[in-house]
Protein backbone atom coordinates (compact mmCIF):
# COMPACT_ATOMS: atom_id res chain seq x y z
CA UNK A 1 0.00 0.00 0.00
CA UNK A 2 1.52 3.38 -0.89
CA UNK A 3 2.37 5.54 2.10
CA UNK A 4 -0.54 7.97 2.45
CA UNK A 5 1.54 10.47 4.36
CA UNK A 6 4.30 10.65 1.78
CA UNK A 7 2.05 12.14 -0.90
CA UNK A 8 2.27 15.83 -1.53
CA UNK A 9 -0.71 17.26 0.26
CA UNK A 10 -1.72 20.56 -1.19
CA UNK A 11 -0.40 22.93 -3.76
CA UNK A 12 0.20 26.44 -2.49
CA UNK A 13 -2.57 28.98 -2.91
CA UNK A 14 -2.00 30.80 -6.16
CA UNK A 15 -0.13 27.93 -7.82
CA UNK A 16 -2.68 28.23 -10.53
CA UNK A 17 -2.01 24.68 -11.69
CA UNK A 18 -4.35 21.70 -11.56
CA UNK A 19 -4.93 20.25 -8.10
CA UNK A 20 -4.67 16.50 -7.72
CA UNK A 21 -6.75 16.19 -4.68
CA UNK A 22 -8.53 12.89 -5.01
CA UNK A 23 -7.17 11.76 -1.61
CA UNK A 24 -8.48 14.80 0.22
CA UNK A 25 -12.17 15.03 -0.64
CA UNK A 26 -13.96 16.32 2.49
CA UNK A 27 -16.02 13.63 4.16
CA UNK A 28 -19.27 15.34 5.08
CA UNK A 29 -20.26 12.59 7.53
CA UNK A 30 -17.16 13.18 9.72
CA UNK A 31 -16.97 15.96 12.30
CA UNK A 32 -16.10 19.49 11.27
CA UNK A 33 -12.73 20.25 12.84
CA UNK A 34 -12.01 23.73 14.13
CA UNK A 35 -8.58 25.16 14.89
CA UNK A 36 -8.13 28.29 17.00
CA UNK A 37 -4.93 30.13 16.07
CA UNK A 38 -3.18 30.52 12.74
CA UNK A 39 0.43 29.83 13.74
CA UNK A 40 2.90 27.18 12.59
CA UNK A 41 1.11 24.35 14.35
CA UNK A 42 -2.31 25.38 13.08
CA UNK A 43 -1.12 25.61 9.47
CA UNK A 44 0.52 22.18 9.49
CA UNK A 45 -2.45 20.62 11.27
CA UNK A 46 -4.93 22.18 8.83
CA UNK A 47 -3.01 20.76 5.88
CA UNK A 48 -2.85 17.28 7.38
CA UNK A 49 -6.55 17.35 8.33
CA UNK A 50 -7.62 18.54 4.88
CA UNK A 51 -5.47 15.82 3.30
CA UNK A 52 -7.16 13.27 5.55
CA UNK A 53 -10.56 14.33 4.23
CA UNK A 54 -11.80 16.51 7.09
CA UNK A 55 -13.72 19.75 6.75
CA UNK A 56 -11.57 22.35 8.50
CA UNK A 57 -12.49 25.78 9.83
CA UNK A 58 -9.77 27.98 11.31
CA UNK A 59 -10.52 30.72 13.83
CA UNK A 60 -8.31 33.80 13.93
CA UNK A 61 -8.35 37.20 15.59
CA UNK A 62 -7.50 38.67 12.17
CA UNK A 63 -8.67 36.14 9.56
CA UNK A 64 -7.91 38.22 6.47
CA UNK A 65 -4.26 38.52 7.47
CA UNK A 66 -3.57 34.78 7.37
CA UNK A 67 -6.08 33.37 4.89
CA UNK A 68 -3.46 32.96 2.14
CA UNK A 69 -1.33 30.68 4.33
CA UNK A 70 -3.96 27.96 4.56
CA UNK A 71 -5.13 25.48 1.95
CA UNK A 72 -8.11 26.63 -0.07
CA UNK A 73 -10.23 23.80 1.32
CA UNK A 74 -9.89 25.18 4.85
CA UNK A 75 -12.13 28.07 5.81
CA UNK A 76 -10.37 30.87 7.70
CA UNK A 77 -12.78 32.97 9.72
CA UNK A 78 -13.25 34.65 13.09
CA UNK A 79 -12.72 32.71 16.31
CA UNK A 80 -16.44 32.92 17.13
CA UNK A 81 -17.60 31.62 13.76
CA UNK A 82 -15.05 28.78 13.83
CA UNK A 83 -16.16 27.80 17.33
CA UNK A 84 -19.79 27.87 16.13
CA UNK A 85 -19.26 25.73 13.04
CA UNK A 86 -16.87 23.11 14.45
CA UNK A 87 -17.78 19.96 16.35
CA UNK A 88 -14.28 19.51 17.74
CA UNK A 89 -11.75 22.31 18.23
CA UNK A 90 -7.96 22.19 18.42
CA UNK A 91 -6.73 25.03 20.64
CA UNK A 92 -3.49 25.96 18.84
CA UNK A 93 -2.61 29.08 20.85
CA UNK A 94 -0.05 29.38 23.63
CA UNK A 95 -1.34 28.52 27.11
CA UNK A 96 -0.77 32.05 28.38
CA UNK A 97 -3.35 33.19 25.79
CA UNK A 98 -5.99 30.58 26.68
CA UNK A 99 -7.74 33.13 28.89
CA UNK A 100 -8.26 35.45 25.88
CA UNK A 101 -10.66 32.82 24.46
CA UNK A 102 -13.10 33.19 27.37
CA UNK A 103 -15.64 35.03 25.17
CA UNK A 104 -16.19 31.70 23.38
CA UNK A 105 -17.21 29.91 26.57
CA UNK A 106 -20.90 29.60 25.68
CA UNK A 107 -20.21 28.61 22.08
CA UNK A 108 -17.70 25.94 23.05
CA UNK A 109 -19.92 24.36 25.71
CA UNK A 110 -20.64 20.69 24.97
CA UNK A 111 -17.82 20.49 22.39
CA UNK A 112 -14.47 18.70 22.51
CA UNK A 113 -11.40 20.91 22.95
CA UNK A 114 -7.99 19.46 22.11
CA UNK A 115 -5.22 21.21 24.04
CA UNK A 116 -1.98 20.94 22.05
CA UNK A 117 -0.01 23.39 24.17
CA UNK A 118 3.46 23.00 25.63
CA UNK A 119 5.00 24.89 28.53
CA UNK A 120 8.33 26.69 28.57
CA UNK A 121 9.79 24.64 31.41
CA UNK A 122 9.14 21.35 33.18
CA UNK A 123 6.22 21.60 35.58
CA UNK A 124 6.35 19.09 38.44
CA UNK A 125 3.64 20.54 40.66
CA UNK A 126 0.73 21.22 38.32
CA UNK A 127 -1.87 22.19 37.42
CA UNK A 128 -1.24 21.42 33.77
CA UNK A 129 -2.22 23.68 30.88
CA UNK A 130 -4.98 21.22 29.97
CA UNK A 131 -6.37 21.25 33.51
CA UNK A 132 -6.36 25.06 33.50
CA UNK A 133 -8.12 25.03 30.12
CA UNK A 134 -10.73 22.64 31.56
CA UNK A 135 -11.23 25.12 34.43
CA UNK A 136 -11.74 27.98 31.93
CA UNK A 137 -14.24 25.90 29.91
CA UNK A 138 -16.10 23.66 32.38
CA UNK A 139 -18.87 22.97 29.84
CA UNK A 140 -16.43 21.53 27.25
CA UNK A 141 -14.63 18.17 27.12
CA UNK A 142 -10.89 18.79 27.18
CA UNK A 143 -8.53 16.24 25.59
CA UNK A 144 -4.78 16.68 25.96
CA UNK A 145 -2.80 15.55 22.94
CA UNK A 146 -0.64 16.31 19.89
CA UNK A 147 1.74 18.45 21.97
CA UNK A 148 4.52 15.89 21.41
CA UNK A 149 4.04 16.13 17.63
CA UNK A 150 5.91 19.01 16.04
CA UNK A 151 4.52 21.22 13.28
CA UNK A 152 7.31 19.77 11.15
CA UNK A 153 6.11 16.19 11.72
CA UNK A 154 2.54 17.19 10.95
CA UNK A 155 3.66 18.78 7.73
CA UNK A 156 5.94 15.94 6.65
CA UNK A 157 3.59 13.21 7.81
CA UNK A 158 4.17 10.55 10.42
CA UNK A 159 6.87 8.89 8.30
CA UNK A 160 9.49 11.48 9.28
CA UNK A 161 9.17 11.59 13.03
CA UNK A 162 7.46 9.96 15.97
CA UNK A 163 4.10 8.39 15.08
CA UNK A 164 2.78 8.21 18.64
CA UNK A 165 0.24 10.73 19.93
CA UNK A 166 -0.27 10.62 23.71
CA UNK A 167 -3.88 11.37 24.68
CA UNK A 168 -5.73 11.78 27.94
CA UNK A 169 -9.14 13.10 28.94
CA UNK A 170 -11.85 12.70 31.55
CA UNK A 171 -14.35 12.06 28.74
CA UNK A 172 -13.96 8.67 27.04
CA UNK A 173 -16.25 9.75 24.14
CA UNK A 174 -14.17 12.86 23.43
CA UNK A 175 -10.96 10.82 23.66
CA UNK A 176 -12.32 8.19 21.24
CA UNK A 177 -13.22 10.93 18.76
CA UNK A 178 -9.66 12.32 18.88
CA UNK A 179 -8.27 8.77 18.59
CA UNK A 180 -10.18 8.22 15.35
CA UNK A 181 -8.81 11.52 13.97
CA UNK A 182 -5.28 10.40 14.93
CA UNK A 183 -5.72 7.10 13.10
CA UNK A 184 -7.04 8.82 9.99
CA UNK A 185 -4.04 11.19 9.94
CA UNK A 186 -1.62 8.24 10.10
CA UNK A 187 -0.64 8.58 13.76
CA UNK A 188 -0.85 6.03 16.54
CA UNK A 189 -2.86 7.22 19.57
CA UNK A 190 -1.58 6.14 22.98
CA UNK A 191 -4.24 6.30 25.70
CA UNK A 192 -2.71 7.78 28.85
CA UNK A 193 -5.93 7.75 30.86
CA UNK A 194 -7.54 10.66 32.69
CA UNK A 195 -6.77 14.36 32.36
CA UNK A 196 -4.58 14.14 35.47
CA UNK A 197 -1.96 12.52 33.19
CA UNK A 198 -1.77 15.72 31.15
CA UNK A 199 1.05 17.10 33.32
CA UNK A 200 3.18 14.09 32.42
CA UNK A 201 2.29 14.44 28.71
CA UNK A 202 3.12 18.16 28.79
CA UNK A 203 6.51 17.47 30.36
CA UNK A 204 7.44 14.80 27.78
CA UNK A 205 8.73 17.20 25.10
CA UNK A 206 10.68 19.26 27.64
CA UNK A 207 13.07 16.60 28.89
CA UNK A 208 16.66 16.99 27.75
CA UNK A 209 18.27 13.56 27.92
CA UNK A 210 17.55 13.05 31.63
CA UNK A 211 19.06 9.55 31.58
CA UNK A 212 22.28 10.84 29.98
CA UNK A 213 23.16 13.53 32.52
CA UNK A 214 25.01 11.33 35.00
CA UNK A 215 26.93 9.22 32.45
CA UNK A 216 28.03 12.29 30.47
CA UNK A 217 29.05 14.10 33.67
CA UNK A 218 30.97 11.03 34.74
CA UNK A 219 32.71 10.88 31.34
CA UNK A 220 33.66 14.57 31.51
CA UNK A 221 35.03 14.29 35.06
CA UNK A 222 37.08 11.23 34.12
CA UNK A 223 38.33 12.96 30.98
CA UNK A 224 39.47 16.06 32.89
CA UNK A 225 41.11 13.93 35.58
CA UNK A 226 43.04 11.69 33.14
CA UNK A 227 43.91 14.60 30.86
CA UNK A 228 45.48 16.56 33.72
CA UNK A 229 47.20 13.42 34.97
CA UNK A 230 48.70 12.67 31.54
CA UNK A 231 49.58 16.33 31.05
CA UNK A 232 51.63 16.31 34.27
CA UNK A 233 53.32 13.04 33.30
CA UNK A 234 54.06 13.62 29.62
CA UNK A 235 54.33 17.40 29.31
CA UNK A 236 54.97 19.10 32.63
CA UNK A 237 57.45 16.58 33.99
CA UNK A 238 59.89 16.68 30.99
CA UNK A 239 59.54 20.46 30.93
CA UNK A 240 60.48 20.88 34.62
CA UNK A 241 63.12 18.15 34.91
CA UNK A 242 64.76 18.31 31.47
CA UNK A 243 63.65 21.75 30.20
CA UNK A 244 62.16 19.95 27.21
CA UNK A 245 59.10 21.70 25.77
CA UNK A 246 56.56 19.07 24.79
CA UNK A 247 53.46 21.27 24.95
CA UNK A 248 52.73 20.45 21.32
CA UNK A 249 51.58 17.02 22.58
CA UNK A 250 48.52 18.55 24.24
CA UNK A 251 46.00 18.47 21.34
CA UNK A 252 46.60 14.93 20.07
CA UNK A 253 49.00 12.76 22.03
CA UNK A 254 47.71 13.65 25.50
CA UNK A 255 44.10 13.39 24.29
CA UNK A 256 44.89 10.05 22.69
CA UNK A 257 46.21 8.52 25.91
CA UNK A 258 43.34 10.05 27.88
CA UNK A 259 40.53 8.66 25.70
CA UNK A 260 41.29 4.93 26.15
CA UNK A 261 41.70 5.47 29.90
CA UNK A 262 38.23 7.01 30.07
CA UNK A 263 36.78 4.32 27.77
CA UNK A 264 38.13 1.53 29.93
CA UNK A 265 37.04 3.01 33.25
CA UNK A 266 33.57 3.73 31.82
CA UNK A 267 33.31 0.14 30.63
CA UNK A 268 34.24 -1.06 34.10
CA UNK A 269 31.53 1.23 35.49
CA UNK A 270 29.00 -0.61 33.30
CA UNK A 271 29.65 -3.90 35.06
CA UNK A 272 30.46 -2.74 38.59
CA UNK A 273 26.84 -2.05 39.69
CA UNK A 274 25.81 -5.60 38.72
CA UNK A 275 28.57 -6.94 40.94
CA UNK A 276 27.56 -4.65 43.81
CA UNK A 277 23.94 -5.77 43.41
CA UNK A 278 25.03 -9.42 43.61
CA UNK A 279 27.14 -8.72 46.73
CA UNK A 280 24.16 -6.96 48.36
CA UNK A 281 21.89 -9.90 47.60
CA UNK A 282 24.47 -12.32 48.99
CA UNK A 283 24.84 -10.14 52.08
CA UNK A 284 21.11 -9.88 52.77
CA UNK A 285 20.37 -13.43 51.56
CA UNK A 286 17.33 -12.37 49.56
CA UNK A 287 16.50 -10.82 46.22
CA UNK A 288 13.37 -9.09 47.60
CA UNK A 289 15.17 -6.27 49.42
CA UNK A 290 15.16 -3.02 47.45
CA UNK A 291 18.55 -1.77 46.29
CA UNK A 292 19.55 1.66 47.56
CA UNK A 293 18.46 4.50 45.23
CA UNK A 294 21.99 5.31 44.06
CA UNK A 295 22.50 1.71 42.96
CA UNK A 296 19.12 1.66 41.24
CA UNK A 297 20.05 4.77 39.26
CA UNK A 298 23.46 3.36 38.45
CA UNK A 299 21.95 0.07 37.21
CA UNK A 300 19.53 1.91 34.92
CA UNK A 301 22.37 4.06 33.48
CA UNK A 302 24.45 1.13 32.25
CA UNK A 303 23.41 1.47 28.61
CA UNK A 304 24.40 5.16 28.53
CA UNK A 305 27.70 4.46 30.35
CA UNK A 306 28.49 1.77 27.77
CA UNK A 307 27.71 4.12 24.86
CA UNK A 308 29.94 6.85 26.36
CA UNK A 309 32.70 4.27 26.64
CA UNK A 310 32.14 3.36 22.99
CA UNK A 311 32.37 7.03 21.96
CA UNK A 312 35.75 7.44 23.71
CA UNK A 313 37.04 4.18 22.22
CA UNK A 314 35.92 5.20 18.70
CA UNK A 315 37.58 8.62 19.03
CA UNK A 316 40.73 6.90 20.32
CA UNK A 317 40.75 4.69 17.19
CA UNK A 318 40.51 7.75 14.92
CA UNK A 319 43.26 9.61 16.83
CA UNK A 320 45.50 6.52 16.70
CA UNK A 321 44.98 6.20 12.95
CA UNK A 322 46.03 9.80 12.58
CA UNK A 323 49.28 9.40 14.50
CA UNK A 324 51.24 7.31 11.93
CA UNK A 325 49.82 9.47 9.11
CA UNK A 326 50.97 12.58 10.91
CA UNK A 327 54.42 11.11 11.68
CA UNK A 328 55.01 10.14 8.04
CA UNK A 329 53.89 13.62 6.98
CA UNK A 330 56.33 15.11 9.50
CA UNK A 331 59.09 12.86 8.20
CA UNK A 332 58.56 13.92 4.59
CA UNK A 333 58.32 17.50 5.70
CA UNK A 334 61.53 17.21 7.69
CA UNK A 335 63.43 15.62 4.83
CA UNK A 336 62.19 18.36 2.58
CA UNK A 337 63.14 21.13 4.92
CA UNK A 338 66.39 19.40 5.99
CA UNK A 339 65.65 20.20 9.59
CA UNK A 340 66.70 18.31 12.69
CA UNK A 341 64.05 16.46 14.74
CA UNK A 342 64.78 18.79 17.64
CA UNK A 343 63.99 21.89 15.60
CA UNK A 344 60.90 20.36 14.12
CA UNK A 345 59.33 19.39 17.42
CA UNK A 346 59.12 22.98 18.57
CA UNK A 347 58.12 24.36 15.23
CA UNK A 348 54.79 26.19 15.09
CA UNK A 349 54.02 23.96 12.15
CA UNK A 350 53.80 21.01 14.56
CA UNK A 351 51.32 22.92 16.72
CA UNK A 352 49.26 23.80 13.69
CA UNK A 353 49.04 20.18 12.52
CA UNK A 354 48.24 18.82 15.96
CA UNK A 355 45.42 21.30 16.48
CA UNK A 356 44.21 20.94 12.90
CA UNK A 357 43.82 17.17 13.26
CA UNK A 358 42.39 17.21 16.76
CA UNK A 359 39.67 19.76 16.04
CA UNK A 360 38.85 18.03 12.75
CA UNK A 361 38.28 14.72 14.51
CA UNK A 362 35.99 16.39 17.05
CA UNK A 363 34.01 18.04 14.24
CA UNK A 364 33.67 14.67 12.50
CA UNK A 365 32.45 13.09 15.75
CA UNK A 366 29.77 15.76 16.20
CA UNK A 367 28.70 15.55 12.57
CA UNK A 368 28.31 11.76 12.91
CA UNK A 369 26.01 12.38 15.87
CA UNK A 370 23.93 14.84 13.81
CA UNK A 371 23.73 12.34 10.96
CA UNK A 372 22.63 9.46 13.18
CA UNK A 373 19.94 11.48 14.99
CA UNK A 374 18.46 12.68 11.72
CA UNK A 375 17.46 9.10 10.83
CA UNK A 376 13.68 8.86 11.30
CA UNK A 377 13.97 5.70 13.43
CA UNK A 378 16.32 7.50 15.85
CA UNK A 379 14.54 10.87 15.68
CA UNK A 380 11.30 9.10 16.57
CA UNK A 381 12.72 8.00 19.91
CA UNK A 382 13.75 11.46 21.14
CA UNK A 383 11.57 14.44 21.91
CA UNK A 384 11.61 17.75 20.03
CA UNK A 385 13.79 19.51 22.62
CA UNK A 386 16.41 16.75 22.48
CA UNK A 387 16.27 16.71 18.68
CA UNK A 388 16.80 20.47 18.44
CA UNK A 389 19.53 20.36 21.11
CA UNK A 390 21.49 17.93 18.94
CA UNK A 391 20.67 19.41 15.57
CA UNK A 392 20.95 23.06 16.63
CA UNK A 393 23.25 23.43 19.66
CA UNK A 394 25.59 20.56 18.81
CA UNK A 395 25.22 21.43 15.12
CA UNK A 396 26.60 24.90 15.81
CA UNK A 397 29.43 23.30 17.85
CA UNK A 398 30.22 21.12 14.81
CA UNK A 399 30.20 24.20 12.56
CA UNK A 400 32.50 26.01 14.99
CA UNK A 401 34.91 23.04 15.17
CA UNK A 402 34.93 22.64 11.40
CA UNK A 403 35.61 26.38 11.00
CA UNK A 404 38.50 26.22 13.47
CA UNK A 405 39.77 23.13 11.62
CA UNK A 406 39.84 25.14 8.38
CA UNK A 407 41.49 28.08 10.15
CA UNK A 408 44.28 25.79 11.34
CA UNK A 409 44.59 24.44 7.83
CA UNK A 410 45.02 27.93 6.42
CA UNK A 411 47.03 29.29 9.37
CA UNK A 412 48.67 32.57 8.27
CA UNK A 413 48.54 31.81 4.56
CA UNK A 414 45.70 34.28 4.19
CA UNK A 415 48.21 37.04 4.84
CA UNK A 416 50.89 35.76 2.47
CA UNK A 417 50.66 37.67 -0.81
CA UNK A 418 52.35 34.87 -2.76
CA UNK A 419 49.30 32.68 -2.08
CA UNK A 420 47.06 35.07 -4.03
CA UNK A 421 47.47 33.69 -7.53
CA UNK A 422 45.98 36.12 -10.07
CA UNK A 423 44.92 38.16 -6.99
CA UNK A 424 42.51 35.35 -6.10
CA UNK A 425 42.47 34.49 -2.37
CA UNK A 426 43.28 30.89 -1.35
CA UNK A 427 40.20 28.62 -1.41
CA UNK A 428 40.03 28.28 2.36
CA UNK A 429 39.55 32.04 2.74
CA UNK A 430 36.50 31.94 0.46
CA UNK A 431 35.18 28.87 2.25
CA UNK A 432 35.40 30.59 5.63
CA UNK A 433 33.24 33.60 4.72
CA UNK A 434 29.82 31.99 5.13
CA UNK A 435 30.60 29.97 8.31
CA UNK A 436 31.93 33.18 9.89
CA UNK A 437 28.77 35.09 8.98
CA UNK A 438 26.60 32.29 10.41
CA UNK A 439 28.62 31.96 13.63
CA UNK A 440 28.69 35.73 14.21
CA UNK A 441 24.95 35.91 13.52
CA UNK A 442 24.35 33.11 16.00
CA UNK A 443 26.53 34.84 18.61
CA UNK A 444 24.51 38.05 18.09
CA UNK A 445 21.26 36.13 18.66
CA UNK A 446 22.66 34.89 21.97
CA UNK A 447 23.08 38.44 23.34
CA UNK A 448 20.67 38.64 26.30
CA UNK A 449 18.65 41.60 24.96
CA UNK A 450 18.25 40.00 21.50
CA UNK A 451 17.56 36.52 22.89
CA UNK A 452 14.88 37.86 25.27
CA UNK A 453 13.10 39.75 22.47
CA UNK A 454 13.26 36.74 20.13
CA UNK A 455 11.87 34.42 22.81
CA UNK A 456 8.93 36.79 23.32
CA UNK A 457 8.24 37.02 19.59
CA UNK A 458 8.32 33.24 19.28
CA UNK A 459 5.70 33.03 22.01
CA UNK A 460 3.33 35.16 19.95
CA UNK A 461 4.27 38.70 21.06
CA UNK A 462 3.95 41.34 18.33
CA UNK A 463 5.39 44.84 18.69
CA UNK A 464 2.69 46.69 16.78
CA UNK A 465 -0.17 44.71 18.28
CA UNK A 466 1.30 45.07 21.79
CA UNK A 467 1.69 48.83 21.43
CA UNK A 468 -1.83 49.17 20.02
CA UNK A 469 -3.24 47.30 23.03
CA UNK A 470 -1.22 49.37 25.47
CA UNK A 471 -2.23 52.77 24.07
CA UNK A 472 -5.65 54.42 24.22
CA UNK A 473 -7.46 54.18 20.86
CA UNK A 474 -6.70 57.75 19.74
CA UNK A 475 -3.00 57.64 20.62
CA UNK A 476 -2.79 54.34 18.89
CA UNK A 477 -4.08 55.64 15.59
CA UNK A 478 -1.96 58.77 15.76
CA UNK A 479 1.21 57.35 17.11
CA UNK A 480 1.77 53.81 15.94
CA UNK A 481 4.20 54.88 13.23
CA UNK A 482 6.38 56.75 15.72
CA UNK A 483 6.45 54.27 18.54
CA UNK A 484 6.79 51.19 16.36
CA UNK A 485 10.43 52.04 15.86
CA UNK A 486 11.20 52.07 19.57
P1 LIG B 1 2.41 30.54 16.88
O1 LIG B 1 2.98 30.27 15.52
O2 LIG B 1 2.97 31.67 17.66
O3 LIG B 1 0.84 30.74 16.76
C1 LIG B 1 0.05 31.04 17.88
C2 LIG B 1 -1.27 31.58 17.38
O4 LIG B 1 -2.08 31.87 18.50
C3 LIG B 1 -1.15 32.89 16.65
O5 LIG B 1 -0.93 32.70 15.29
C4 LIG B 1 -2.49 33.57 16.94
O6 LIG B 1 -3.34 33.40 15.82
C5 LIG B 1 -3.09 32.77 18.07
N1 LIG B 1 -3.50 33.61 19.20
C6 LIG B 1 -4.72 33.61 19.76
N2 LIG B 1 -4.79 34.47 20.77
C7 LIG B 1 -3.58 35.03 20.88
C8 LIG B 1 -3.04 36.04 21.73
N3 LIG B 1 -3.78 36.61 22.68
N4 LIG B 1 -1.76 36.42 21.53
C9 LIG B 1 -0.99 35.84 20.59
N5 LIG B 1 -1.46 34.88 19.74
C10 LIG B 1 -2.75 34.49 19.88
O7 LIG B 1 2.53 29.23 17.77
P2 LIG B 1 2.52 27.71 17.30
O8 LIG B 1 3.92 27.28 17.10
O9 LIG B 1 1.55 27.50 16.21
O10 LIG B 1 2.00 27.01 18.64
C11 LIG B 1 0.62 27.05 18.98
C12 LIG B 1 0.40 26.07 20.11
O11 LIG B 1 0.78 24.77 19.67
C13 LIG B 1 1.23 26.37 21.37
O12 LIG B 1 0.47 26.12 22.51
C14 LIG B 1 2.39 25.38 21.27
O13 LIG B 1 2.88 25.03 22.54
C15 LIG B 1 1.70 24.20 20.60
N6 LIG B 1 2.63 23.33 19.86
C16 LIG B 1 3.38 23.83 18.85
C17 LIG B 1 4.25 22.99 18.17
C18 LIG B 1 5.09 23.49 17.02
O14 LIG B 1 5.90 22.69 16.47
N7 LIG B 1 4.98 24.72 16.61
C19 LIG B 1 4.33 21.63 18.53
C20 LIG B 1 3.53 21.16 19.56
C21 LIG B 1 2.67 22.01 20.22
P3 LIG B 1 -4.30 34.62 15.36
O15 LIG B 1 -3.46 35.86 15.38
O16 LIG B 1 -4.73 34.25 13.99
O17 LIG B 1 -5.43 34.66 16.33
From TrEMBL:
Residues 33-118 form the Pyrroline-5-carboxylate reductase catalytic N-terminal domain. One of its GO terms (biological process) is copper ion import. It holds the Pfam family Ferric_reduct. Belongs to the STEAP family. It is a multi-pass membrane protein. Keywords: Copper, Endosome, FAD, Flavoprotein, Ion transport, Iron, Iron transport, Membrane, Metal-binding, Oxidoreductase, Transmembrane, Transmembrane helix, Transport. PANTHER family: DUDULIN-RELATED, METALLOREDUCTASE STEAP3. InterPro entries: Fe3_Rdtase_TM_dom, NAD(P)-bd_dom_sf, P5C_Rdtase_cat_N, STEAP_metalloreductase. GO terms for cellular component: endosome membrane; plasma membrane. The chain crosses the membrane at residues 214-232, 262-284, 355-375, 387-408, 428-451. Gene3D superfamilies: NAD(P)-binding Rossmann-like Domain. It is found in: Endosome membrane. Its main location: membrane. It comes from Poecilia reticulata (Guppy). Its cofactor is heme b; FAD. This is STEAP3 metalloreductase. Signal peptide: none annotated. Residues 261-398 form the Ferric oxidoreductase domain. One of its GO terms (molecular function) is metal ion binding.
Amino acid sequence: MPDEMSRRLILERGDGGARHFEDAVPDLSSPVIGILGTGDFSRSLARRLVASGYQVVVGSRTPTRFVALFPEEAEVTTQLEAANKADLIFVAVYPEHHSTLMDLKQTLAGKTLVDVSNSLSINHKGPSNAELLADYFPGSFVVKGFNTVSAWTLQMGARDGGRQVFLCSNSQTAKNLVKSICHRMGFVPVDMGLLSSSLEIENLPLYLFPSWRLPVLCMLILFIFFYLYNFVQDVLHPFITQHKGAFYKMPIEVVNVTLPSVALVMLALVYLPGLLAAVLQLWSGTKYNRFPNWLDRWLTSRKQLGLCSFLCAALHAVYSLCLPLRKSAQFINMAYKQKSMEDFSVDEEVWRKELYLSVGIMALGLLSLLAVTSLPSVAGTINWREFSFIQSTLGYCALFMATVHTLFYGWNHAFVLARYHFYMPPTFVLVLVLPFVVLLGRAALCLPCVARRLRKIRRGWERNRHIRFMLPAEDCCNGVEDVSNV
